[in-house]
Each structure stands twice: as structure tokens, then as C-alpha cells.
Amino acid sequence: MRTIHLALLGLGTVGTGVARILREQARHLESQSGARFAIRWVVVRDPSKPRGIELEDGILTTEVDRAISDPEVDIVVELIGGIDPARDLIARSLRAGKHVVTANKAVLAKHGRELFGVANASGRVIGFEAAVAGGIPIVAAVAQGLAANRISSLAGILNGTSNYILTAMHQQGIGYDEALAEAQRLGFAEADPTLDVDGNDALQKLAILSRLAFQSRVPLEAIRRQGIDTLADVDLHFASELGYVIKLLAVAREVEGKLALRVSPTLVARNHPLGQVHNEYNAIKVTGHAIGDTIYLGKGAGMMPTASSVVADLLDVAIGRAQETFRSLKLWDESPPGPPVSDDGSMPNRFYLRYSIRDEPGTLARIAGILGGHGISIASVIQHETSEDDIGSAVPLIIMTHIAREGAVRTALRETDALDIVRAPTVCLHVAD
Amino acid sequence: MRTIHLALLGLGTVGTGVARILREQARHLESQSGARFAIRWVVVRDPSKPRGIELEDGILTTEVDRAISDPEVDIVVELIGGIDPARDLIARSLRAGKHVVTANKAVLAKHGRELFGVANASGRVIGFEAAVAGGIPIVAAVAQGLAANRISSLAGILNGTSNYILTAMHQQGIGYDEALAEAQRLGFAEADPTLDVDGNDALQKLAILSRLAFQSRVPLEAIRRQGIDTLADVDLHFASELGYVIKLLAVAREVEGKLALRVSPTLVARNHPLGQVHNEYNAIKVTGHAIGDTIYLGKGAGMMPTASSVVADLLDVAIGRAQETFRSLKLWDESPPGPPVSDDGSMPNRFYLRYSIRDEPGTLARIAGILGGHGISIASVIQHETSEDDIGSAVPLIIMTHIAREGAVRTALRETDALDIVRAPTVCLHVAD
């Protein structure tokens, strides 16, 4: 039986999970791949730090150069995360003739084209199933299982932290700060949750998935982004009242020959499959011209789910399947054949609008008139009765639109928000189909 | 660019869909695989029958021998279905050096070991993504995406016809016969729906999936089977009252080192992910030791979803990935390493029991006493008030148990059903976790 030698860069949560699966499932992995995996090096910054796993003597090292240039090493497993030095280490590993398996969405979303170019030039592969929705084999599903399809849309809950927080807010009726604190206490949010709650993490994953699904070049800056950190608690209450939940949705869809992408808090009907994805779970809906709607659900992060995807990639390389895939798919090609990326402005959508208005006769008529003037028709309205005390203060007016062009809605909002009866900038959220 | 020549056996719904994808997505498929697909032969019984697609002159034939022995043909696509002559044609195609792609669950569930043996001996592959849950790439997910996992359980809605009927019964409140007639009218059930509604179709798919997921030998007769054709409408009403829906669930799970399998109408909580899979959709929940719960949802059948999976397999063969997978996975090995199959008797489960009782003092106590004597504890009870008119007639008593061993429940039922107060055999259904 062949032995495949690995260098693990990083021994954090996922690295520990990978080492654990490789040890505990050794026989199972041998029967799956016909090969034996041996960890040759584990590169860490601080070898004295206590670890959640015992390693054989002599494999823990701080010398990354030695690990990635070791002629015995077949696969470098990059689990450091972030752009630098991961970008350089991946490129150098490939040039040194190693295959690379990585869970690093940031570096692939930003420098995927460069790194896949190095891989192609070196005749090596980059496995990245773990980089998107750790516990869902979505990269393989899109690149292989749905390969016969022209994919028309992707919509996903791709950030487990945001989804945990939103679930807690909806189900427990607590505010954002309290829900974030709970997520941090339970390990679903980091001490600095910025990249999760501001939508950047989901955006990176969307960029990678869209590249695969649509074969388009997707510059990160072409994706419109809004996080859940800007969300007001009151909008969750009104969403509930309307039969919806708010989810941080990452959406890419081809409309009229162009690809529009966004990450934003979105109203999802409570009985929509994505409306029922709770806590730290991720889910992705992919629609193909032949297969129709398909949905994939699983844990988006965490030690073992992500490690499971890393090891699936190791098996793919061991079997030789990854090499065949890589050669044929021309991932991150210089000139991909997919549709060009456009901004979301012309995209048809339904919208949730929350006005803060002065409650006086004719207010609804004036706002509805302006919306109508821009071709935006109203599907439903909530305006609660106000008490004597409210007179003179701002009260909320909720309008759900029928399908409208985003650009028209933005223009209409500029007009309505200039009215003297509108007391604060109107909140505008997408509504999923 | 290479050209890969195909022989299609059968040009029914799926075959027509395959031919359509190959034609309409030719460029897309070339960019996915680096190869061009050409249909060399389409074998049909009656070439004069009108078809939903125009084929090039000279490729429609009745001569199956000529097609599968043509040295130009690379892949035989078997879309005839059933055991004979499919079994023989697949074996002969493999021996003639062709790869085979098939959507035929019946022949693989029954003769998989034999046919995979022929494939191995011939150095050829059998692609069968389309054989299980047409529009869900579940074979690849289990065999590749989850390969790092020890899978502990599978639970699936694998028959779209049954699910359509059950959805109609629940949502429209109609009876079985009416729902079946509606499904037939809309093309979701065949004129003879037996194999769908009696659970055999789901059983075959479960056998194939379980073989992949657990690497066990799964004889069809080891799977307990009950269809929806035996279901009484009243049990759907009581299930609804309890917050459940009834689904035809195919379940395989490893408990205490043994693999238990069944297909049966099962109560699924309304807010359980599988409880929300409606109409003709299929879904499969797979639990792995590392990845946790994952769920895959899509259309289980129909022209284009199934054709999409057939073409995905064609791409896999063209790319060479199928060959690598096949060599490494040793599918349908002579002595698979997985757990032995046991019957379901010792499996822990929750149960729904519907007694038909004579409504008289002490009835509930006598039944509860017998259940308790077998260690079966009661989670909830429904017994509605009866009117004067009901006195003397049989009334329903519904008992939901906590987790109990199936064997104990069966024994207890034999005892309670012998009581004079029990007027008809008690209905016993599984309840999903």
C-alpha cells in the first residue's frame, strides 16, 4: 500500500480535527483510497502550546520552509487561514511539486486565479471543498453532480455565526447584542466577529461558489454586501408578523445574460426551505436548468465538519480523482466562458420597506403614489393603530412590494425619503422568492 | 478534442432528456469535460413510434447486439429499466469493453454484486448516480464528499410518487384513492403504481445507498418493507393532530455494530427537515461521525432531473474520474468490511400506536399496564370524548411511546390485541427522531 505524506500548516481547530480523523479512521480511509496517510510535519508558530491531540515525536516544527520543500511530502494541507502568508505558502508548495488542500476561503476568493494558475503550471491540484460550507460537500456537488446543468441561481446561508445570531433573535426574541454574546459564549462566534457578521465571510464563499457554478470571473468588489450588524431588531419583529424570518442570504443569479451577486439580510418565508435552516447550520439552494431546485444542508463550520471535507479532498488526491477534475475543469481560467458580472441594480426582486413616518392623513397615499410612479406595486402593508401618545412621533409603516427592479426602488426611496413626513432613512431589505 | 461515442438503450422519458441535454448543452459539456459526446446508436423496440426529439438519420435501431458490440461505442447508457434484459445487456456491454451508465435501481439492487464483478474483471465502470434520487447527486456525496466519515445513519424520502400522494392527503385532506388518482393525472404516478406505493422502489434505492454508505452486503429481503398502500386515512389525521406528518421513510442505521434497514410510513415532526419535503421532492439525511447531519434535497425523478444525473456520470467517465472512483472504492466487493445486516427487532424507536377499543372504564389502564410491563413508556395519549352514540362501538385510542425496542413493542401488541376490549389489530407506525 502506498503511503501519502502530509505537511499540515497550522494545528488549530480544523488541523486538530484532520489529525484526529487521520488517526482514528485510518483503516476506513485505507479502504476508501487504497493508500495510507502519514503526517510528516505539523508546522506551528509555538510548539510549546498545549494541543488537543498527541502527535508523534519530531513532527511538530516551526520550520515551514523545511516542511513544504521536503521531497517526501506529497500534499501540503494549508489551515492557517487569511491572506498572508497563506498565499505565498500555497504558491511555493505548488511550485515545489506538492498538491495543496486548503480550507482558506479568503485567499481563494481574492487570489484564486493566481494560485490556480500556479497549480496548473506545476501540474498540481488545489483541493478546497472545506473552504465553502465546511460540512456540506457543495464544491463537488456543483462541479460534478450538477455539471450537466446550466445553473441559473445560487442562494445560500453561508455564515454559521450570523445564522446562529439571527436564529437566537427570532426564536428567543432577544436583541442583536445579547444574541451575539450568546453565540460567543457557545463558541459560534469569535471574540472579534466582524468578518462573520459584516457579511465578508459569506461574500468570499459566494465568490468561490459562483466561479464554479457560473464559470464567471467574480471580483470581490462586484458583490454587494450588507451584514447583519446593521440590522434593527424591529425588522425581525415585523418580518415575523409577515410570516418571514430574516436570514443573511448570499445570492448569485443569472438574469438577462448577466450575473448579479449580493450578500444581505433577506426576508425568507418561514416555510421556505432556507427559512427553516437554524442555528449554526448552512444551506445552499442551487437551481439548474435540468435538475431544477436542489438544496444542500449541513454544518457550515466547526472542527469535525470542516476536517471531514479536508480529508475528503485528501482522499480525492490519493485516488487521483482530484487530478482528473482539476485538469478538466480549468478552474479559475484566464477567460472563463460564463456571463459577465453586473451590479444588482436592474435585478427584479421583492422588497421590504420600513418607513418611519409622521402619522397624519394622506401619508400612505403620498408614499404609495411615489412608489407607483416608479412602477413599484404594493403587495401588503402594515401600519398599526397609534395611541394618543404617539401623535407627533415617528411611527413605522411597513410595505412589502411585488417584484420590482432594484434600481427603481432605490430611486423611489430617494424621493420618498425627501418628503417631510418621512422622519428617518427608510430601511430596505430583499425578500427571497 | 476527443469524441466519446454513446449507445443509448431505451428512448423513454429519461433517454429523451439525455439526448436533449447532449444536444442543447453540447458546448457547455465540452467545456466541462474536454470531450465531445456523440450518440452513435439509440436502441428502441419500435422505431416507428413518435419521439419527443429528432435524431440524426441512421442512429435509431432495434438491433441491440450491434449497438453494444460496435467497437466505436465507448459508453452504453442503459435506460430500459427492470431486471431482464437489462442485467444481461449491462454484463455484455461491460465484457465488450464499454463503460455503462445506468438509471436502473432494480437491477443494481438485485444483481449489483454480479454486475460490479463483471465491471471490475473487464476494467470498466458502472455509473449509477441516476439510479437513486435522480435529481440529487447523492451517490457522489456519500461515496466521495462524506468519504472521511463513518456513516451512522441514512434516512430518506426516496419515492416521489408516495411523497406526492402523502402530501396531497395531508394538505388537501383527501383520501388515498383520490390522491393517487390526482398523482396519476399529473404524471407523478404510473397507471400501475404498485412498485412505488408498496415501498419496493424506495427499498431498492435504500439497498444501493446503504451498500455505499455502510459498505455492507444488503440483501433485499433483509429490508423490512411497508408501503403507503396499507395506510389508513385516519392515521394521517391523528398524526397531524400530534404535530406530525406521515412520510414513506427509508431508514438504515448502525446500532450496536449491526445495520438495520426498513422502509415504512413514519411519523415525522412537522418542523423536522424531512417533514417539510413536499410533493414529488426527495430528500436524504445522512449522518456521519465527523460531518454530523447533512441533508440533500431535490426532485427524485422526472425527465430532466434524472437525465441530468445520467449526463453527470457521462462527464465523469469522459474526465476519467469515474474510473478512479471505481478502482478505489471496490463497490460491491465480495466481502465488504461494513457491519452485518440485522433485522429491526432490537432497534430503539419511538412508536405511534392506534388502538381500536371498546370505550369502558379501565381500558387505558389495562393497555398501559401491559406496555409498561414490557418497559414501554408512554409519551402522549389521544382519546377523544365519545358521544352517547359511540357507546358499544370501537373508538380510537392513540398512544405515542418514548423510545422502546421494536421487539418489545411487537410482543406487547400481541398481548394487548388479545384483550377483549381491543376490537381490531392495532396499527403501529414508526416515529422519526
TrEMBL record, chains A, B:
**Residues that coordinate or bind NADPH:** K105
Q: In which pathway does it act?
A: Amino-acid biosynthesis; L-methionine biosynthesis via de novo pathway; L-homoserine from L-aspartate: step 3/3; Amino-acid biosynthesis; L-threonine biosynthesis; L-threonine from L-aspartate: step 3/5
Residues at the active site: K205 (proton donor)
The record's annotation in Pfam families points to: ACT, Homoserine_dh, NAD_binding_3
- Give the record's keywords alphabetically: Amino-acid biosynthesis, Methionine biosynthesis, NADP, Oxidoreductase, Threonine biosynthesis
Q: Which PROSITE patterns does this one have? A: ACT (PS51671), HOMOSER_DHGENASE (PS01042)
> Where in this chain does the record put each ACT domain?
352-430
Catalytic activity line of the entry: L-homoserine + NADP(+) = L-aspartate 4-semialdehyde + NADPH + H(+)
Locate the coiled-coil region(s) and give their ranges: none
One Gene Ontology molecular-function label? NADP binding
GO terms for biological process? methionine biosynthetic process; threonine biosynthetic process
InterPro entries per record: ACT-like_dom_sf, ACT_dom, Asp/hSer_DH_NAD-bd, HDH, HDH_cat, HDH_CS, NAD(P)-bd_dom_sf
Positions binding L-homoserine in this chain are E190
Residues involved in NADP(+) binding: L9, G10, L11, G12, T13, V14, G15, T16
Q: Does the keyword Iron-sulfur apply?
A: no
| Record-listed E.C. numbers | 1.1.1.3
Q: Which SUPFAM superfamilies does its entry note?
A: ACT-like (SSF55021), Glyceraldehyde-3-phosphate dehydrogenase-like, C-terminal domain (SSF55347), NAD(P)-binding Rossmann-fold domains (SSF51735)
Enzyme class name:
oxidoreductase
Q: What family is this?
A: Belongs to the homoserine dehydrogenase family.
Name used for this protein in its record: Homoserine dehydrogenase
